[in-house]
Amino acid sequence: MKIGFIGAGKVATAFGRHLYAHDITISGYFDRHPEKMAHASRSTASTPFQNAAQVAQNSDVILITTRDDQIKAVCDDLCRANAIGTSHLVGHMSGAHSSLLLSEAGRKGAALFSLHPLQAFAQEEKALTDLPGTYFSLEGADPRLATVETLMEKTGNRCFRLAPEHKSLYHLAACVLSNYIVTLMDFGLAVLEKGGIAPQEGFQAMLPLIQGTIANIARMGPARALTGPIARGDATTIRQHMDALNIDGAQQWREMYAWLGLKTLRLAKKTLLSEKDKAETLAKILNDDE
Ligand SMILES: NC(=O)c1ccc[n+]([C@@H]2O[C@H](COP(=O)([O-])OP(=O)(O)OC[C@H]3O[C@@H](n4cnc5c(N)ncnc54)[C@H](OP(=O)(O)O)[C@@H]3O)[C@@H](O)[C@H]2O)c1
Q1: Confidence (pLDDT) at 286
Q2: What's the whole-model pTM score?
Q3: How far is Cα 269 from Cα 283, in angstroms, rounded to an integer?
Q4: DSSP summary character for residue 249
Q5: Which one, of 93, 101, 113, lies nearest residue 73 by Cα?
Q6: Tens of pLDDT along 250-264?
Q7: Sheet harboring 25-30: ordered strands across?
Q8: Cβ density class 144-165: b for 16+ within 10 Å, e for less
Q9: Quick check: CB of 53 below 6 Å from ligand 1?
Q10: Which of 28, 165, 238, 276 could form a disulfide with 47 if both were Cys (CB 3.0 to 4.6 A apart)?
């Protein structure tokens, strides 16, 4: 089983090196930057190819690891050049797109997939350090993808399967769990700054609390990890919070706090907050409906 890459950027080079370190054969790389291609192939004892079709000719698994907006064009070009056939598994590593981006190759009889590492790779060496602990998703519907699962078993990476129609939901969830946590932290730190604490110090002070919460979620799941005034049904404190945001320029924060509070209340009602009257009082405060 030989793996070839079209696009020798951060992900392809680090992932190729990761595969190679687990005795998986890399056929080689093609990239429009000769220096990147030379580095990637040197690091994996593989061949710098002259063009993308040569990658296909010399590989069982073809990974198109260009930027997302180039993947379809590269795949379509390979198909037009008759470089793809029934023996090929053709994949990409984008989180946002499904394997349907490669449907031209499917028409040539190839098995299609996307293999997405749940990790941010800004730099190759750091990526190499992070890859052993990285979880992957493998999306695609073809039974031949068992081969890709076997590769993941060989590297020791955990991996779950996704149906093509669920890829958007998967990527959306990853954005919520990564990007929107940033938004939430920015919100908390901005409110803290309003109280006179500089964001940098605020973050250092809150970090053990944030880490403790994440550790609790890992141990008990989100609903049981909830602590604080909503979980306790503490109406006085929630009223104080809403009043504290009743100041000039804080209307958007107040709306965000109330909206998140109502979502938190819904979560608390599932497990920790069993008294119906307390939950109703909290809902009224958060809805400004007292
Ligand atoms: N970076 C991350 O954190 C991360 C994480 C998970 C998944 N991914 C996915 O991994 C894939 C690769 O991302 P990356 O960050 O490694 O990209 P990258 O560093 O930008 O590397 C892509 C390489 O492909 C080359 N390329 C583009 N079009 C080409 C073509 N037609 N023929 C040959 N080479 C071509 C690019 O050259 P130019 O620079 O000239 O375009 C560049 O050298 C993407 O699908 C991305 O969504 C990335």
Answers
A1: 97
A2: 0.91
A3: 11
A4: T
A5: 101
A6: 999 999 999 999 999
A7: 47-48, 25-30, 2-6, 61-64, 89-92, 111-117, 136-139, 159-162
A8: ebeebeebbeebebebeebebe
A9: no
A10: 28
Does the structure show a pLDDT above 80 at 290? no
Q: Given the CA of residue 68, which atom of ligand 1 is nearest to it? A: 45
CA angle 36, 42, 46 (to 5 degrees): 105
Q: Which helix (H) or strand (E) holds 89?
A: strand 89-92
> Residue 289: what pLDDT?
86
Q: How confident is the model at residue 280 (pLDDT cuts 50, 70, 90)?
A: very high
pLDDT at 136: 98
Residue 10 near ligand 1, beta carbon < 6 Å: yes
Q: How far apart are CA 186 and CA 192, in angstroms?
A: 10
Sign of CA dihedral 221, 226, 227, 233: negative
How many angstroms does the Cα of residue 14 sit away from the middle of ligand 1? 12
CA distance 78 to 72: 10
Q: Pairing relation of β-strands 47-48 and 25-30?
A: parallel
The total of other beta-carbon atoms located within 10 Å of residue 23's CB is 8
Structure tokens at 86: 């029934």
Structure tokens belonging to residue 1: 């089983």
The rounded Å distance from CA 66 to ligand 1 centre is 3
Q: How far is the CA of 101 from the centre of ligand 1 (A)?
A: 16
Query: Is the Cβ atom of 93 under 6 angstroms away from ligand 1?
Result: yes
CA 165–ligand 1 middle distance (angstroms): 24
Query: Which residue matches tokens 């040197």?
Result: 42
Name which of 60, 140, 56 is nearest 97 in CA terms: 140
